[in-house]
């Protein structure tokens, strides 16, 4: 039932504090992460030569959000594959690989075909899915249910944030015995229980985002620039705009801005720049300056209190979001970009 909401997607967006709580329930204990579905396979995963994430659409974007922290916490090289592209290329896949399949439904045809392919090639196949009893859950060697609750809206929202949180927990579990990242690991484990509250906080931007969406009604196109932990946020934010507002939108790596996209920038093109506080912050500040110099119509997402350092001239529109541990920030930053494009 969609209750007081206009449509299921809206209900699912606002449900995220709850869905994230159920995703983590019973899995965080005494400074440790326990994923029942992976614990017997962690040793094999730790010894694998690489981790390959495979998915389509939003699920692929969730894997893109996971890559930086998965590499950082596990120390294992991580690659990404869009399921159809892996099949088109018959890409390299070996017995020493761990192939992680990400799918809300667990029934996406391309993802299941890629799973068959990985099984034939002898990789350890791990599933991350929202659907108990799905083909993906049954055919993988092991995996984790994201437990976000049934997702009805065609544009995925709460599954995306829960997928990221499951992959954070997975990275913590794989990297549990790594000394060099212990303090970072503890900081993330301590921050996770409060994440649903931070999501409730960012949901209060509902009216502000409605106002922003209305101001963009006449625009032909929208760019979204992100990098580092928030490269995925740019792609997923743009995907939401395409799927829901039916407007042309491109998510791009900010580091690529000067290698082409900058040529399209003028005062008519709205551009969202994700510039929350992390190791890439100063690089994003200089991207903002360059876009500003081209008279870009800037909308900057920044951490609370950073408005004047991302937009000294006061000429851009600013979306301020709560700051959390860097690898959890994509969970917060996507929420405003899910809201109100309809
Ligand atoms: C499991 C129970 C949960 C119970 C908890 C108590 C299920 C579905 N889950 O949760 O109800 O509260 O124990 O400890 O009964 N799997 C795959 N591929 C996938 C996803 C999962 O093979 O894509 C496998 C896992 O390896 C595992 C099983 O399915 O063997 C259940 O996974 P999950 O629900 O994530 O495990 P728990 O969190 O331990
Ligand atoms: C596509 C949907 O068909 O499948 C996307 O349009 C979705 O919204 C993608 O993200 C993958 O779905 P799933 O269920 O495999 O996560």
Verbal overview:
By secondary structure, the protein is of the alpha/beta class. Helices cover 44% and strands 18% of the residues. Helix 4 (57-74) runs parallel beside helix 8. The strands form 3 sheets. A 5-stranded parallel beta sheet has the order 4-3-5-6-7, sandwiched between helices. Strands 9-8-10-11-12 form a 5-stranded parallel beta sheet, sandwiched between helices. The two termini are 20 Å apart. It contains 15 helices and 12 strands. Bound molecules: uridine-diphosphate-N-acetylglucosamine (UD1) and 6-O-phosphono-beta-D-glucopyranose (BG6). 6-O-phosphono-beta-D-glucopyranose is lined by residues 56-59, 103-105, 108, 111, 155-156.
Topology:
Elements: H1 8-14, H2 16-24, E1 28-29, E2 32-33, H3 42-46, E3 50-55, H4 57-74, E4 78-82, H5 83-89, E5 97-103, H6 109-120, E6 124-129, H7 135-139, E7 142-145, H8 158-174, H9 182-191, H10 195-203, H11 206-215, E8 221-226, H12 231-245, E9 248-253, E10 270-275, H13 281-293, E11 297-303, H14 307-310, E12 317-321, H15 329-338
Parallel strand pairs: 3-4, 3-5, 5-6, 6-7, 8-9, 8-10, 10-11, 11-12
Antiparallel strand pairs: 1-2
Helix pairs in contact: 2-8, 2-10, 4-8, 4-12, 5-6, 8-15, 10-15, 12-15
6-O-phosphono-beta-D-glucopyranose binds next to helix 4.
| E-strand count | 12
Provide the β-strand percentage band. 15-25%
- Ligands bound to this protein structure: uridine-diphosphate-N-acetylglucosamine, 6-O-phosphono-beta-D-glucopyranose
Major sheet attributes: 5 strands, parallel
Large-scale geometry: globular
Helix percentage range? 40-55%
Average of pLDDT: 96
Strand order of the largest sheet: 4-3-5-6-7
Distance between the termini: 20 Å
Rounded to the nearest angstrom, the radius of gyration is: 20 Å
| Low-confidence spans | none
Total of helices: 15
Catalytic activity: D-fructose 6-phosphate + L-glutamine = D-glucosamine 6-phosphate + L-glutamate
Pathway: Nucleotide-sugar biosynthesis; UDP-N-acetyl-alpha-D-glucosamine biosynthesis; alpha-D-glucosamine 6-phosphate from D-fructose 6-phosphate: step 1/1
Protein name: glutamine--fructose-6-phosphate transaminase (isomerizing)
EC number: 2.6.1.16
């Amino acid at each position: 039932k969609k209750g007081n909401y206009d449509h299921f997607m809206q209900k699912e967006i606002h449900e995220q504090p709850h869905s994230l709580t159920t995703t983590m329930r019973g899995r965080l204990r005494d400074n440790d992460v326990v994923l029942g579905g992976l614990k017997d396979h962690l040793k094999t995963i730790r010894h694998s030569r690489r981790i390959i994430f495979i998915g389509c659409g939003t699920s692929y974007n969730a894997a893109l959000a996971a890559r930086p922290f998965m590499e950082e916490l596990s120390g294992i090289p991580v690659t990404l594959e869009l399921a159809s592209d892996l099949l088109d290329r018959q890409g390299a896949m070996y017995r020493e690989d761990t192939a992680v399949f990400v799918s809300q439904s667990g029934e996406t045809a391309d993802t299941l075909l890629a799973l068959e392919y990985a099984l034939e090639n002898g990789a350890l196949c791990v599933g991350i899915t929202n659907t108990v009893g799905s083909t993906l859950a049954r055919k993988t060697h092991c995996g984790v249910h994201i437990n976000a609750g049934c997702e009805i809206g065609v544009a995925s929202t709460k599954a995306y944030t829960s997928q990221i949180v499951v992959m954070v927990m997975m990275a913590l579990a794989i990297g549990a015995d790594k000394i060099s990242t212990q303090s970072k690991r503890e900081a993330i484990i301590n921050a996770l229980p409060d994440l649903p509250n931070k999501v409730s906080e960012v949901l209060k931007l509902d009216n502000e985002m409605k106002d922003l969406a209305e101001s963009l009604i006449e625009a032909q196109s929208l760019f979204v620039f992100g990098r580092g932990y928030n490269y995925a946020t740019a792609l997923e934010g743009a995907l939401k705009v395409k799927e829901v507002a039916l407007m042309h939108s491109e998510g791009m790596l900010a580091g690529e801005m000067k290698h082409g996209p900058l040529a399209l920038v003028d005062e008519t093109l709205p551009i969202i720049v994700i510039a929350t506080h992390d190791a890439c912050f100063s690089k994003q500040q200089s991207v903002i300056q360059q876009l500003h110099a081209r008279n870009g119509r800037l909308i900057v997402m920044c951490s609370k209190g950073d408005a004047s350092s991302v937009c000294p001239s006061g000429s851009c529109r600013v979306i301020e979001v709560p700051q959390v541990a860097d690898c959890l920030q994509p969970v917060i930053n996507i929420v405003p970009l899910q809201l109100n494009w309809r």
